[in-house]
Amino acid sequence: MRLSKYTRISLPTESYLNLLGIAISVFSSNFTFLIENIIRNDNQDLYNWHALIDENKMSRIYDAINKTITPIQDDSIVEIFKEIIVRRNRIIHSFRVTSENKEQILATKNPKNQIQYEIDEEYLIDFINLNNKMSKKLHDLRGF
């Protein structure tokens, strides 16, 4: 049975695709919410939304968090965000494989040691939960 009317390319299961879509969506929402919090707490007008949303170097985003959010709260948001970025990068820079269960799935490799591993549903759920953790901290920071 073909899963998609949009492509003839083989696809992962619907549940996997659903989790993958949720993972991308929660990251996108969180990244925008993070930028909102940076701008809201930028008392020196160092940053603007357009530049931050298009920023390709995460080190600049980490710097913005450390200058605007960390002094108010602590470094927990930047530390969670760093872990999110590592995991997001593994998802974005993944490649397709057939899993041990004979299903299409994404896989990636550890860039430090080149060991490959699957991005399974558990990985995606952990990524979503990590984003939920950061979202709660951002909501607490915002205070309303």
Written overview of the protein:
By secondary structure, the chain is mainly alpha-helical. The chain has a domain at 14-89 and 121-142. Helix content is 57%, strand content 10%. It has five helices and three strands; from the N terminus they run H-H-H-H-E-E-E-H. The protein has helices at residues 14-40, 49-53, 58-68, 76-92, 121-142; strands at residues 95-98, 104-109, 116-119. A three-stranded antiparallel beta sheet has the order 1-2-3. A hairpin with a 5-residue loop joins strand 1 (95-98) and strand 2 (104-109). Helix 1 packs parallel to helix 5 and helix 3 packs antiparallel against helix 4 (76-92). It starts with 13 loop residues before the first helix and ends with a helix. The model has no long low-confidence stretch (mean pLDDT 94).
Radius of gyration: 17 Å
Q: Major β-sheet, in short?
A: 3 strands, antiparallel
Which of globular, elongated, flat, extended, rod-shaped describes the shape? elongated
Q: Identify the strand order in the major beta sheet.
A: 1-2-3
Features:
144 residues, mainly alpha, 3-stranded antiparallel β-sheet, 3 strands, 10% strand, elongated
Secondary-structure blueprint:
Elements: H1 14-40, H2 49-53, H3 58-68, H4 76-92, E1 95-98, E2 104-109, E3 116-119, H5 121-142
Antiparallel strand pairs: 1-2, 2-3
Condensed summary:
The protein is mainly α. The chain contains five helices and three strands.
